[in-house]
Amino acid sequence: MSNGKEAHSSMPQEGYNAIRRLNDCIMVFNQKMDKISNDYINEELGKTIHNVTIIHGGTQINSIPNKAIAQGNIRTIPEFDNGKVIALLKETVAQLNQDNLFPLELTINYNKIPVEANKNSTLIQAIQKQFDTPLPVLGGPATTDAAEFIKLQKQFDIVVFGPGVTTVPHQINEYVEISNYFEQIDIYKKIITTYLSDE
Question: What is the mean pLDDT of residues 3-18?
Fold first, then answer.
């Protein structure tokens, strides 16, 4: 969150524009995170991904805003983990706040760590047995409830497998074909039977 001071937009020198300061902060964050993304790569998960996805600020067009908020997410990899990213963000905010009467505030709402699954797990083998040609086993940047489950620090099989088109999540044309949906139900039944018999 960026703090500022309200003033009439014709007299910006009497206030402090929280939106402008927030924009400057986002630019610095993006530069630092772009470097992390380029410097560290995981063979399965790829690069660190970072996005600002929500911005709120201002109350009316003729007033200098005294508050602006940005939200985003960062999908980390083990090579530059959550702890290192959080430390970098805190350090950056502290640097930007030096000698400034209107401090930036950083809030970490969620702290989900990346999940690495065993590519040769019993569950993945049970899935592969349902197909004449083995499916590719790939890592991906999306998060799932597995990020919460692994906090138990117990070993269990993890896989993301289901119907749909992987390139359209959160888009207006996101869809699952009905035939694919029903086909997947039958496949799930076979996977469960195979998996439990192999346990």
Answer: 92
d(CA 191, CA 77): 30
CA distance 165 to 18: 40
What are the pLDDT digits (tens) for 30-74? 999 999 999 999 988 889 999 999 999 999 999 999 999 999 999
pLDDT at 88 (0 to 100): 96
Q: What's the distance, CA 64 to chain centroid?
A: 32
Per-residue H/E/C for 10-61: CCHHHCECHHHHHHHHHHHHHHHHHHHHHHCEECCCEECEEEEEEEEECCCC
Q: Is 65 exposed, middle or buried (0-12, 13-18, 19+ CB in 10 A)?
A: buried
At residue 184, what is the residue type?
A: Q
What b-and-e string marks burial along 83-96, b requiring 16 or more CB atoms within 10 Å of the CB?
A: eebeebbeebbeeb
159: which residues sit within 8 A by CB, 6+ positions away? 117, 121, 123, 124, 127
Q: Determine contact, residues 32/99, Cβ cutoff 8 Å.
A: no
Which H or E run contains 9?
A: none
96-143 pLDDT tens trace: 999 788 899 999 998 888 888 888 899 999 999 999 999 998 887 788
Contacts of 52 (CB under 8 A, 6+ apart): 26, 29, 30, 70, 71, 72
